[in-house]
């Protein structure tokens, strides 16, 4: 089972261990953050590696999710500032 990608289940020669690769965050952490419904454990019975195609996919999904989170925080911050500004103008009258 070691030569099978954990996410797409295809056989591949180029596989990367999701727990020991040097990315920060790790591939396992990216999977957990992007797909909340799956549990990732080091000692589970599933393959511990991912193919390069799936790695590209999870990195893209992870970057997209982080960008959405950042934009939402920025939007909420701007919205809160506009409310504060409107209230301060209202009280200044």
From TrEMBL:
Cited Pfam families: zf-AD
InterPro entries: Znf_AD
Segments forming domain ZAD: 3-78
Record keywords, A-Z: Metal-binding, Zinc, Zinc-finger
One Gene Ontology molecular-function label: zinc ion binding
GO cellular component: nucleus
Record: residues binding Zn(2+): 5, 8, 51, 54
Record-given protein name: ZAD domain-containing protein
Gene name per UniProt: Dmoj\GI26632
